[in-house]
Design goal:
It contains 2 helices and 7 strands; from the N terminus they run βαββββαββ. It is of the alpha+beta class. A hairpin with a 5-residue loop joins strand 6 and strand 7.
Length: 114
Amino acid sequence: MDRSAWIAGELAEWPTKTVMAQLLKQAGLRVHVGQYSIQIEVGEGIGFSFVEYGGDLGDPAVCAEADTAEDLMCAAKRVSNVLTTAKLRHRFEIYDHRPTMAGYLHYNWPLKHE
């Protein structure tokens, strides 16, 4: 899909795929767990997933996109709130079509200004 907004994100430490799925489900989010991914339903027309999750693939990656930065920011806040409640150190940078950073969400990972 070619969307106008996307996310760059990371977690300092990733829980197991099973634990992550449980955290998201307990927070009321609908998730689909695949062999190497967790897809999260956070709104119509918004793709949000953790990919390359499991096995010996290394650290998972955050993959999210939407038509607008505002839609993606709203969806990312829902996921960020779950991670914050679990005290999982993370950061999400939301970019718009320019590409300009349109938003920054985090838990214990402040944005450094240089």
